[in-house]
Amino acid sequence: MTISTTNPLRAGLVEDRLPEPCTVVIFGASGDLTKRKLVPALTSLAVERLLPPAFAIVGFARKPMTNEAFRADMKENVNKFARHRPVDETIWKEIEGGLHYHTGSYDDPASYAALKERLDAIDKERGLPGNRVFYLSTPPETFPIAIRQLGAAGLINPSEEGPFTRVIIEKPFGIDLESARSLNHTVLDVLREDQTYRIDHYLGKETVQNLMVMRFANALFEPLWNNRFVEQVQITGAEAIGIEGRGGYFDHAGILRDMVQNHLFQVLCLTGMEPPVTLSANDLRDEKVKLLKAIRPIPAGQFDEYVVRAQYTPGSISGKAQIGYQDETGVSKGSTTETYVALKIFIDNWRWGGVPFYLRAGKAMSKKVTEVALMFRKTPHSIFGEKSIDEPNVLAIRIQPDEGISIRFGSKVPGNTLDIQPVNMEFRYGTSFGTEPPEAYERLLLDCMLGDPALYTRGDEVDASWRFISRIHRAWAASGLKTIPTYEAGAWGPADADALLARQGHTWRRP
Predict the structure, then answer these.
(1) Is residue 263 part of a domain?
(2) Does residue 459 lie in a domain region?
(3) CA dist 207 to 55, 210, 221, 224, 230, Å?
(4) 41 near 74, Cβ under 8 Å?
(5) For a Cys-Cys bond, which of 30, 153, 252, 498 suits 63, CB 3.0-4.6 Å?
């Protein structure tokens, strides 16, 4: 008699999500993203036994460093930032044995030739079949350089047969429509679309993914998810910090590029798209592209009626003083770069015709929160007279922090009179499932190793989002304005943003 040691409750779960043996090469390995997110995410996958038994990580950067120093640095950061920390020593030994560092320059062919030799040696040493994931966590201007060099060095397998090669490209993918198209042409000169993984870490967040589950797996919600029942939709991405020493980057980017074109537009897509035929990558992304193409272009000369921008001035956030944007290191004096933006968007299709979608993103705001809120229409007729409540029913999906869902509706107050008060019905991930959700990079790295690009953006999707956003940037540049509205740090934005909604008879929700 044979006794099985397999846990039947886990049968088919881990095995179905186990990638082929491979090497992950991280360009920009001396940077913060590698230390705080990427290697900690790979370590957490190892803890959950979701990495293949034969696996290696190679860091590539200009900074000279030995393997030993790199391993010590990564261990220190894993124990600070990994979801499963401190890391188990046995598991860390497994990771450490395949953790290497390679010094090189992004524009130096010799560095890539040496990298190829190094990877071939690691494959032989660890019994790897030559499968590779290249992660470009480098300054955006180096993306086309690194991609061309990878191709020239023979590090990209052009065939669909044999070992796989996949390249993850960090955001931003371009800074406007023209640069995004240029980068895409460079990418597709070297890579196939199915080898290209344009990352937006918001798509790896549990609650963002749960938007699809909530909509398409529950008959309770989907029949109400349209213009017959929904009066308005608000999507908020607020940060309770300033630019935190990123003035040199942020002053050239602004919040519209840094937050809206990628993160909030991804949330907009999942909130508004039609049900995909399947959850395959192309079916899912086809629906996102259709949604982006249905966004009504802002009429020429009317951008101020649809878009509000502003900058934060000195103030206080949670009792802590915050300097103004103009005083931040790296910010040009007299800069008109926006740290806050609010948009009114209409989606011209049958589901959403006439429903305004309000998007806002800002730095140095009252609190950190990202959420989607659907405000429902009032009942056609109230039988409660003056006892009726003016507040609409609200379905809010909290993406971060305190991931969860709340429904706000009217309820009778206990007592002998018919008084009605709004109440909340709450669901929180941590409370309901008793576990911390995986970090976004865990899911996205695992999906790339598995060859599943569903949670990555496709080239035509990036093109469609930039087509809308770049018109706003061109309108701002053409306006010639030397100053823009302001808001005090710690506030919810400028008065102009309130006026944007007031024209439709709406007000911003306070999360």
Answers:
(1) yes
(2) yes
(3) 29, 5, 16, 20, 21
(4) no
(5) 30
Total domains in the chain come to 2
Dihedral (CA of 188, 194, 196, 202) sign: positive
3-state secondary structure of 66: coil
What is the 3 state secondary structure string of 348-366? Answer: CCCCCCCCEEEEEEECCCC
**Is there a domain that residue 186 lies in?**
no
| pLDDT value, residue 5 | 38
146: tokens are 């690194």
CA triple 303-477-362, angle to 5 deg: 65
Q: How far is CA 132 from CA 26, 120, 451, in A?
A: 11, 11, 11
CA distance 8 to 476: 60
Q: What is the pTM of this model?
A: 0.91
CA 432 to chain CA centroid, Å, is 24
Q: Write out the residue range of the structural domain in which residue 485 sits.
A: 203-438+453-502
49 vs 46, 54, 99, CA distance in Å?
5, 12, 17
100 included as an active-site residue: no
| Angle formed at CA 336 by CA 269 and CA 501, multiple of 5 degrees | 45
Q: DSSP code of 7? A: -
| Tens digits of residue pLDDT in 43-59 | 999 999 999 989 999 99
Q: How far apart are CA 143 and CA 43, in angstroms?
A: 26
For residue 99, give the CATH number of its domain. 3.40.50.720
Instruction: Pick 9 or 254 by higher pLDDT.
Output: 254
CB-based contacts of 61: which residues, under 8 Å, 6+ apart?
27, 28, 29, 30, 31, 101, 103, 104
Which of 102, 201, 263, 506 is labelled catalytic? Answer: 263
- Confidence grade of residue 321 (pLDDT, cut at 50, 70, 90): very high
pLDDT for position 25:
98
Mean pLDDT of 73-77: 96
Report if residue 508 sits inside a domain: no
Which amino acid belongs to residue 143? F
Q: How does pLDDT run across 376-434, given as a tens digit for each residue?
A: 998 887 777 666 677 889 999 999 888 889 999 888 888 877 788 888 888 887 787 77
Q: What is the pLDDT of residue 3?
A: 36
Nearest one of 458, 445, 443, 404 to 211, comparing CA atoms: 404
Residue with tokens 């390249």: 167
